[in-house]
Design goal:
Layout lengths: L6 E3 L2 E3 L3 E3 L8 H9 L4 E8 H16 L6 H4 L12 H13 L4 E7 L8 H8 L3 E6 L10 H16 L6 E5 L6 H10 L4 E4 L5 E5 L4 E5 L8 H11 L6 E5 L5 H10 L3 E4 L1 H6 L3 H15 L5 H4 L16 H10 L6
Parallel strand pairs: 3-4, 3-12, 4-5, 5-6, 6-7, 7-8, 8-11, 11-12
Antiparallel strand pairs: 1-2, 9-10
Length: 334
């Protein structure tokens, strides 16, 4: 039985739902080619950070200003000069990836404040990106920050990026909003064509021997899958945006669960870093075999069939599921 694995994400047609998320594997042309040869459906390039853009712009500004204090005439020598700054190497990566690859290329812009740096999105489009993933990485650590202010910052940031471009923009968000469904709808209303659930923040650690705080990178496991699964199931059919799952997909079963919940695609980083690009083929074959065995003819037919709106027990995604889990758990110590 033939199974149609095609899916649509951000209006882009993908051969199947497996997408390479932003990671060290998507930072060079050679690595991107290996992912394509292994069968990836689309790639999200490594992220360009707001700090990188602003640092380069400030360096260029300081260079232009150097020595002007020595001469009054120099102060007005470049009064209206416009100069091009920004990480040219990233724009070159986009352009080279578009020439080298047949699959969609999604550029990634990582930031947390509205500002002039968001104009880089337009340069991404001009370089040939098929879409943009806006990775919003912001930790509200100040006691002065209110939830309303944080949410509005997200919305303004999305608006500032989507107004720059005509290509679709997806927003990679954190799971920490107190009203996630409302926030998802607001982001879609601000112009986001897709939501990537969820941003997996790196957590610091304390080194006991050195008495230092250090960054700590831990790759995901399948146990982390359920957070994205729950919210994708809840949001499916309720927000006007594509839904991508990221964080915790390692096996064909993981991918299938997310598709049944309503994901349009599943993004991988940790599983590819652990197992290499050839893992893509194993995932695709496993998905196809499971669907064929159960007589699904297409991903489109299966996608979202167990979302909250479609499943027989919608309460399973909310508080009722919490109570059932507590009642069903057993332990020799309980």
């Amino acid at each position: 039985m033939s199974v149609d694995l095609r899916t649509r994400y951000l209006g882009l047609e993908l051969a199947h739902p497996i997408v390479a998320s932003a990671s060290p594997l998507t930072g060079s042309i050679d690595s991107l080619k290996r992912l394509q040869d292994a069968g990836i459906a689309a790639v999200v390039l490594k992220s360009l950070f707001e700090e990188q853009i602003e640092h380069e712009e400030m360096s260029a500004h300081n260079l232009m200003e150097y020595g002007t204090e020595l001469s009054p005439e120099a102060q007005g020598f470049f009064p209206e000069m416009k100069y091009s700054t920004g990480p040219d190497s990233y724009l070159q990566l986009i352009a080279e990836a578009k020439r080298a690859l047949r699959v969609p290329v999604i550029a990634s812009l990582n930031g947390y404040t509205p500002g002039g740096w968001t104009s880089m999105a337009r340069k991404f489009q001009e370089a040939g990106a098929d879409a943009i993933e806006l990775n919003v990485y912001f930790l509200a650590a100040s006691v002065e920050d209110t939830s309303a202010e944080v949410e509005q910052r997200y919305v303004k940031l999305v608006e500032s990026v989507t107004k720059q471009v005509s290509i679709p923009v997806a927003v990679k968000v954190a799971p920490y909003f107190s009203a996630m469904a409302n926030m998802a709808a607001r982001l879609a209303g601000a112009g986001a064509r897709g939501l990537v659930l969820f941003n997996r923040f790196l957590q610091p650690d304390i080194l006991l021997d050195e008495l230092e705080v250090a960054p700590h990178l831990v790759l995901s496991t399948s146990d982390e899958l359920r957070l994205a699964l729950r919210w994708i199931a809840i949001l499916r059919g309720r927000v006007d945006a594509s839904l991508a799952a990221t964080g915790g997909a390692h096996t064909p079963e993981d991918v299938l669960k997310l598709l049944l919940a309503g994901a349009d695609c599943v993004m991988l980083a940790s599983s590819l870093l652990m197992r290499g690009p050839n893992h893509i083929g194993a995932l695709v074959k496993g998905i196809e075999a499971w669907m064929s065995e159960r007589e699904y003819t297409s991903v489109a037919q299966m996608k979202g069939s167990l979302s909250q709106q479609s499943c027989p027990d919608p309460d399973a995604f909310e508080r009722a599921n919490y109570m059932k889990a507590l009642r069903s758990y057993t332990s020799e110590f309980a």
